[in-house]
Amino acid sequence: MEKMVLGIYGSPRKGGNSDQLLDKALEGAGAQGAQTRSIFARELKISGCLECGGCDKTGKCVVKDDMGLVYPLLETADVIILASPIFFYGITAQAKALIDRTQAMWSKRMLQKTPEQRKQYDSGRGYLIGVGATRGKNLFEGAELTAKYFFDALDMTYEGGLFFRRLEKGSDVRKRPEDLEKAFEFGKKAVAEN
Q1: Cα distances (angstroms) measured from residue 160 to each of 36, 68, 83
Q2: What is the mean pLDDT of residues 81-108?
């Protein structure tokens, strides 16, 4: 059966390094026979989670905005690749708003699965592409923790990331074709894994 791979573009900058790397990863996934879809967080009108408790009993968010277009894609994806530049040792605000709104999917998971069942993940696999301008040793730790618990809320395993340091200007990755090739292979591998 054909796998559906969803790419979440977290950058506020169109066509920058993380966009180009995710383009390549999705191209690699497509080369493995997967169907690919894309979400551009920068194009969505999404409010932050209101922590209103509206999803506690139903597993559905009561806020009406563009997140309504995102939930069905999150629910049907077999593989999700989140890509974000690193801002202050974390992911971008645009991507974080989307992630925070998956609280409803976390609530749904709590409602539908027993504590024992929640020890296993049944909805697929998640990956992260992180891009940072500096060489900091802990540059990707915050983003990775966020990604891990984002995928946990989606009932998916976090399978790890592909991380790039010292990319700042939007065109920098074009000078590093080996990094674009790594992203292509990363996308292929994400589909090939069981």
Answers
A1: 19, 27, 12
A2: 97
